[in-house]
Design brief:
Elements: H1 15-32, H2 34-58, H3 66-96, H4 99-104, H5 110-138, H6 146-172, H7 177-194, H8 215-229, H9 234-254
Length: 258
C-alpha cells in the first residue's frame, strides 16, 4: 500500500472550485424554496399568460400583439424577481441565522460567497428564460429583433441583474430579516404595478416620462428595444449602469455580515 493513501491532502480547494460549489448549493436552495420559486417563476408565468389572455379577451389596446408587447417585460420581471426579491429575502434570513458570518470565516472568502450567489442567480435566470421564452413562443410570440435582438438582450439582462442584485444586497445587508422580507416584497409589488417593467412606459400616460429613472423601467425599455426592435437603447442602459454602480458602492460601505 502506497504511503499517504488514506491521508487527505491538506489545504483548501482552489478558489474557482469553492465558488462553483457555493453556486451549486445556492442554486439548489433557491429552487427548493417554495416562496422563492413562486417569485422567480410562477409570478412571471402568470403575468405572461394572464396578460395575454386579458388583453385578447378584454379588448385591451396595446402598441402591438399582446404577446409581443408583454414578453420582453415579463423577462425583465423575471430578472427583477430573482436578482432583487429572492436574493434580498434569502440573504436577509441568512444574516439573521448567522450563516453568512460563519461562511465568511470559512476558507470560502466573502468575495467567493458573493460570486457564488451571483452564479446561482445566473443559473436560475437561465432556467427562467428558457421556460418563459418557450411559453411565449407557444403563445405565438414573434420577436422582431431577431438574432441581433437576442444577442443584445443578454448583456442587458446581466446589467439589470447587477443593478437589482446590488439593491437587494443593500436592503438585506442593512435591515433586519423581517424588515427585509416586508420591504423587498413591497418594492417588488410597487415596481410590478407602477414601475413600467411589464408594460411600456407609454401605457402610464404623462407619468411615463418620469419613470425612466427607475431600474425596472430601464430594464423593461432596454429589453423591449432589443427584442422588439433589434437595437440597444442607450439611455436605459446608462440608467441601469448608474443603479448598478451606486448600489454596489453603497453595499460595500453598509453591508453588515452579522
Amino acid at each position: 500500500m502506497s504511503a499517504g493513501t488514506f491521508a487527505p491532502a491538506p489545504g483548501a480547494a482552489p478558489f474557482p472550485r469553492q465558488v462553483l460549489a457555493q453556486a451549486s448549493m445556492e442554486t439548489r436552495l433557491m429552487l427548493r424554496n417554495g416562496e422563492q420559486l413562486l417569485v422567480a417563476l410562477v409570478i412571471p408565468v402568470l403575468a405572461l399568460v394572464g396578460g395575454v389572455v386579458a388583453a385578447e379577451r378584454g379588448g385591451i389596446e396595446l402598441d402591438g400583439r399582446a404577446v409581443d408587447v408583454l414578453t420582453p417585460g415579463v423577462l425583465a420581471l423575471a430578472v427583477m424577481s430573482t436578482a432583487f426579491t429572492s436574493l434580498a429575502i434569502a440573504t436577509g434570513f441568512e444574516r439573521r441565522y448567522g450563516l453568512i458570518k460563519r461562511l465568511g470565516a470559512s476558507p470560502l472568502s466573502r468575495t467567493g460567497l458573493l460570486l457564488g450567489k451571483l452564479g446561482a442567480l445566473l443559473v436560475v435566470q437561465a432556467v427562467q428564460a428558457v421556460v418563459l421564452v418557450a411559453l411565449a413562443l407557444a403563445l405565438g410570440w414573434s420577436p422582431d429583433g431577431g438574432v441581433v435582438g437576442a444577442v443584445l438582450a443578454v448583456p442587458v439582462a446581466l446589467l439589470g441583474s447587477a443593478a437589482f442584485a446590488a439593491l437587494g444586497l443593500l436592503i438585506a445587508g442593512t435591515l433586519r430579516a423581517e424588515a427585509t422580507l416586508a420591504v423587498a416584497n413591497l418594492v417588488y409589488l410597487l415596481l410590478l404595478v407602477g414601475g413600467a417593467v411589464v408594460l411600456p412606459r407609454s401605457s402610464y400616460g404623462g407619468v411615463g416620462e418620469a419613470l425612466v429613472v427607475l431600474p425596472s423601467a430601464a430594464l423593461g425599455d432596454a429589453l423591449r428595444a432589443a427584442l422588439t426592435e433589434g437595437h440597444l437603447a442607450v439611455v436605459p442602459v446608462l440608467v441601469l449602469a448608474v443603479w448598478a454602480l451606486v448600489g454596489a458602492a453603497a453595499v460595500s460601505r453598509t453591508f453588515r455580515w452579522e
